[in-house]
Amino acid sequence: MREWSKEERYKPLESIDDIKDLEEKISKSKFRQCFHIQPRTGLLNDPNGFVYDDDTKTWHMFYQWFPWGAAHGLKYWYHVTSKDLVHWGDAGIGISPDSDMDNKGAYSGSAIKDNGEIYFFYTGNHRDENWVRTAYTCLAKLGKDNKVYKFDKPVFGPSEDYSEHQRDPKIFYDEKLQKYFIIIGARSKDDRGCLLLYESDKLTEGWAFKGEIKVEGYESFGKMWECPSIEKIGDKYIFIFSPQFIEFPDRGSITNHNVYLIGDFDVQNMIFKPEGDFGHLDLGFDFYAAACAANTEKPVLSAWMGLPDAFYYTDEEDWSGCLILPRELSIEGGKLKQRPVKSMFDILKKEIEYKEVSLEELINIMNTPENNGLYEIQAPAVIKIATANQGFTMGLLCDESKEGGISLSYSQEDKTLKISKALLKHRINPEFGEERVNVFEDGLTEITCFIDKSSIEIFFNDGDQVFTTRIFPEGEKYIAFRN
């Protein structure tokens, strides 16, 4: 694996022409995705500034971008737009780290539409000559020409009562209080993950530190909280965040997670009261830094299909990362539901292989003489299987000998699903664990698989759970059932 020097990691991109040769090389990769946002070159990580402009009927998405290769270094915001959340157009660099307040990176942030204008709040990663970090909360605005223009000065700097790790502002407006609020993910000086709250009567000025949000029962839960988001769904709130430096028994040695809490949020008194235990947003192995779009009727979620400090096979091709398919969130029966946005089905049914079958139908198709017990998947594809709560052991993306792939094993007796990626020919990050287990209280009745060139996303029971992982198949393109 390539070792990057500090000079290489913090080399600015002088012109987009400087990556043309790299872009041409990367375009030949057999693992380039078909219907996912992926980097033009280099590394993609967190989704940023996700917002819907209801005037132009346009979705704006930015992603954290290091242009030179699959490494973390000087970060930009790269801008893509869409009318349908499926097809994305290239809008060029959105924010460059070209000022003193963000001289070592334009880090993550969020968007708000206010009085017909779209604004972005992001973390400016500043370092001085001694490499001491100062995290500024910076402001930018989307112009009528679809370009992003930064304000000259940050709206505020870090709180001195907390560590240098203060980032990823989430901006929102409270109609009842008629105030703007920003939530910052932070790390206390005694290594405790937490949330900081700022408020202002005006969007672009007058910001004041209000204090630390109390999340009841989570006063000691990891050492840093990244990418916070609080969204209202009906009469409840969902708090999404990424706790770091914490391990869970069923997640291998992963110390970077993406979790959620459902409960009540009193912003005035800075208290979030969860109604139950936290949940993982995704059962899979490659999911982090989830963020919801601004200016939507219902929350629409995006996330980085990747993890910090992880290895992916395309790293050696000088690119890595993509974003998940957008998901619409709802709370039903007190539980979180995550569904692919409706346009995914409306559009992808017409454009790629799409099949709806029952478990019995799929077995019959595979058992015809010409199929020899296999069902071939031509990625990209969507396959929806009605399982009728029957037990099975299935291999997704197997080879012709029914070996390899992702194993799904469901027990009807105890309603438990086991998912393993240990049989994939290209195993990645095995130290993070290769098996996930989930119990479906009402049984497993349906699975929908979105299969792209180098990823798979599986939605269970119409969004009760989701499993997301990167894959790098080598001749693995079949479904097979196993004894």
Quote the distance from N terminus to C terminus.
39 Å
Helix-strand makeup class: mainly beta
Task: Give me the CATH superfamily of the largest domain.
Answer: Glycosyl hydrolase domain, family 43
Shape: globular
Query: Helical percent range?
Result: under 10%
Question: Your description of this structure?
Answer:
The protein is mostly beta strands and 483 residues long. It folds into two domains: 6-340, Tachylectin-2, Chain A; 352-481, Exo-inulinase, domain 1 (Jelly Rolls). The protein is built from four helices and 33 strands. The chain has helices at residues 6-9, 20-27, 342-351, 359-366; strands spanning 42-53, 58-66, 76-82, 89-95, 106-114, 117-127, 133-142, 148-150, 162-174, 179-188, 193-200, 208-215, 224-233, 236-244, 259-266, 271-274, 279-280, 288-292, 300-304, 319-320, 327-332, 335-340, 353-358, 375-376, 381-386, 392-398, 406-411, 416-420, 435-439, 446-452, 455-460, 465-470, 478-481. Strands 9, 10, 11, 12, 13, 14, 15, 16 and 17 form a nine-stranded mixed β-sheet that branches. A six-stranded antiparallel β-sheet has the order 24-33-26-27-28-29. The chain has a five-stranded mixed β-sheet with strand order 4-3-2-1-20, with no helix packed on it. The chain is globular. The two termini are 39 Å apart. The mean pLDDT is 96.
